[in-house]
Amino acid sequence: MIENLTEKTEARMSKSLESLAKSLKRLRTGRAHPALIDHLLIDYYGTKTPISQMATITTEDARTLNIAVWDKSALKIVEKAILEGNLGLTPKVTGTNLKIPVPAMTQERRKELIKQLKNEAEQAKVAVRNIRRDLLALIKEEQKSKNITEDDERKNSEIVQKITDKNVNNIDEMIKLKESEILEI
């Protein structure tokens, strides 16, 4: 049961970390990177299509994104979707491409982002702890039904706790890294 439990715990908790990593990529840090807009859905011929399936998104420099839309007739649609995306970004049409200058962040915006960042971190930690709670309950249930001994229960509980601590520390590391990125001027 120990090996299976370890794998199950690692797999479930890593999904929480992956989810946090995805949401951290979308936080605007004052630097241009494709993850800022790659989640936007464009209404393209009646179908919601991710922008990454309609265009090539590249960084021109540290503060400019370049979007090369494959279907030139969709240029205005993509521009409109970016404007309506509530990202604080204003695309400029340059011939057959869109250029998006990423404005520098104000101190107020940095504080808002850090608050949001800490909220996201707390949600991820709660998710990890909920997984721990569920697994500890499962271990207790196994012990009550005499499928495992008390020693095995204690050993398995310690393993789950170690994995939980490792994942909470990983969350803290991810947040520290992103926070330093946000505070960088």
What does this structure look like?
This protein has two domains: 2-26 and 106-183, Topoisomerase I, Chain A, domain 4 (Orthogonal Bundle), CATH 1.10.132; 34-101, Gyrase A, domain 2 (2-Layer Sandwich). The protein contains four helices and six strands. The chain is 57% helix and 16% strand. The chain has 185 residues and is an alpha+beta fold.
Topology:
Elements: H1 2-25, E1 41-44, E2 47-50, E3 55-61, E4 64-69, H2 75-83, E5 92-94, E6 97-101, H3 107-144, H4 150-183
Antiparallel strand pairs: 1-2, 3-4, 4-6, 5-6
Helix pairs in contact: 1-3, 1-4, 3-4
Strands side by side in the biggest sheet: 3-4-6-5
- What is the total domain count? 2
Distance between the termini: 50 Å
Element order: H for helix, E for strand: HEEEEHEEHH
CATH fold description of the largest domain: Topoisomerase I, Chain A, domain 4
How large is the count of helical segments? 4
Label the overall shape: elongated
The main β sheet shows up as: 4 strands, antiparallel
Broad structural category: alpha+beta
Helical coverage, percent range: 55-70%
| CATH architecture call of the largest domain | Orthogonal Bundle
Q: Mean of the pLDDT scores? A: 85
- How much is the radius of gyration in Å? 22 Å
Runs with pLDDT <50, length 5+? none
Report the strand count: 6
CATH class of the largest domain: Mainly Alpha
Strand residue percentage: 15-25%
CATH level 4 superfamily of the largest domain = Ribosome-recycling factor
